[in-house]
Design a protein that fits this description.
Elements: E1 2-6, H1 16-28, E2 35-41, E3 59-64, E4 67-72, H2 82-100, E5 108-112, H3 116-129, E6 133-137, H4 143-147, H5 155-170, E7 173-176, H6 179-187, E8 195-197, H7 214-221, E9 227-232, H8 241-250, E10 257-262, H9 268-277, E11 283-287, H10 291-300, E12 303-306, H11 321-327, E13 332-334, H12 339-347, E14 350-352, H13 358-368, H14 372-389, H15 392-419
Parallel strand pairs: 1-2, 1-5, 2-4, 5-6, 6-7, 7-8, 9-10, 9-12, 10-11, 12-13, 13-14
Antiparallel strand pairs: 3-4
Helix pairs in contact: 1-15, 2-3, 3-5, 8-13, 11-14
Length: 420
């Protein structure tokens, strides 16, 4: 089976879409009869700066862990520049069409959101190649960009929503990352029979606390005597990171406690300015780091924070970072209701606080950080829970099984058509 996968993001980029796509494809190609080709951008997210070692050529090919990767010319734009970022999305959609001409006919085309135009590109490629199209739904777009304030509701947004619904209806199969997304699609008239929920997970072999020399890394950072609270992920408009700074400010009297904010994004400069203006001295901004380096920050964390903005939309979202925290035995204070809260509470690996409630988060941190035994117990609970429910290898196999069934069904229909 030949799989053609369109994705806006791919390693060495380290965001959630890049990680999931790579880790699933890496498992798929272990099947000797499965071949995977990625069409993706040159790595530049989130700063819009080309990663070292890459050239922004029209087409270039490489192989990563058995996956054929075709990188196409990229319109480089930082994540915080909305207009330029939109051009980046549209340009990728067009370049993906050109890139697909360099690929032998696949058996199936997959495209993943975000962003929306990637799915449009995947659908067009599937029409040209005359093969089934699978829409991997990671985000309800364009609703999500309206929610975070990146763009206002308008005629253009309503037009995009029309195209969005068309893509859902036209796809041969939909892989939804949450139960809530599936429920939303069914309410909008999409056939439930063609939707499979395959949630995010974590590579359990790659995310193990014991793989990291915690004491050595803490010494390197100069925090060997500190208890560490971390936020690891995108510093974007969807996250209430200003509230984390408010919590840190409230807890400056706890001299043995320090916050690390690891990542980059549209809000980074504003957050750093807030820290300087309000003289918050117990917070360190780390910036973007590699996947290997980020594991070290997970490992030194005593508590992890997950804090999206307060909005009904985020009840349907499961931030992928919770699985990595849990695999690294880090208790989570989670400030989002819905599916993510259910996972954390069901695991016994964390505490829920109301979204954007600084007082609740401050108190939860104050109490938990001083209870070493509870931290250890929650961490063990979290690890056991993801081992049982969110092993990335098992989830990748589940998705591969769906693709094989879809392809075999499509081929059987084609044989019947030819014979009739």
């Amino acid at each position: 089976m030949r799989i053609l996968f369109l994705t806006h993001y791919f390693p060495p980029e380290v965001n959630a879409p890049a990680s999931r796509t790579y880790e699933h494809a890496k498992e798929w190609v272990k099947d000797e009869n499965t071949f995977v080709t990625m069409i993706t951008n040159n790595p530049n997210h989130p700063e819009g700066v080309l990663y070292e070692g890459y050239e922004n050529r029209w087409f270039q090919k490489e192989e990563i862990d058995g996956i054929e990767v075709i990188r196409v010319k990229t319109y480089l734009a930082p994540n915080k520049a909305v207009f330029k970022r939109t051009i980046n999305y549209l340009f990728y959609m067009l370049m993906a069409q050109a890139g697909s001409l360099r690929v032998d006919k696949p058996d199936v085309v997959i495209a993943t959101s975000p962003q929306f135009f990637c799915a449009c590109g995947g659908y067009l490629v599937s029409l040209f190649k005359r093969v089934p199209f699978v829409f991997e739904l990671r985000d309800i777009w364009p609703e999500s960009i309206v929610t975070v304030g990146a763009i206002k509701k308008s005629v253009i947004i309503r037009f995009f929503e029309t195209i969005e619904l068309f893509l859902y209806k036209s796809s041969d199969w939909i892989i939804s990352l949450t139960d809530s997304f599936k429920e939303d699609l069914i309410k909008r008239g999409i056939d439930a029979k063609k939707i499979t929920v395959i949630k995010n997970g974590v590579d359990l072999d790659n995310f193990k606390r014991e793989q990291i020399n915690v004491e050595k890394f803490k010494r390197e950072l100069g925090v060997e005597e500190k208890k560490i609270v971390s936020y690891i992920g995108t510093l974007g408009m969807a996250h209430a990171l200003d509230k984390i700074l408010d919590c840190a400010k409230n807890l400056q009297t706890l001299k043995d406690m320090h916050f690390f904010i690891v990542g980059s994004g549209a809000e980074k400069d504003e957050l750093e300015n807030k820290r300087e203006k309000e003289n918050i001295k117990n917070v360190t901004f780390v910036g973007q780091v590699s996947k290997e380096e980020v594991k070290k920050y997970y490992a030194i964390s005593d508590i992890g924070l997950v804090a999206p903005r307060k909005d009904e939309l985020f009840k349907s979202v499961i931030p992928s970072k919770i699985f990595e925290y849990m695999a690294m035995e880090v208790p989570i204070i989670i400030g989002v209701d819905g599916e993510a809260r259910k996972i954390v509470e069901e695991s016994g690996g964390g505490i829920y606080v109301e979204p954007e409630n600084v007082e609740q988060m401050t108190e939860a941190l104050r109490v938990l950080i001083q209870n070493k035994e509870t931290i250890a117990e929650m961490g063990k609970n979290a690890r056991m829970y993801v081992e049982r429910n969110f092993d990335r290898k098992e989830l990748a196999q589940k998705q591969l099984d769906v693709l094989k069934l879809l392809v075999s069904t499509a081929k059987a229909k084609e044989r019947r058509r030819i014979c009739s």
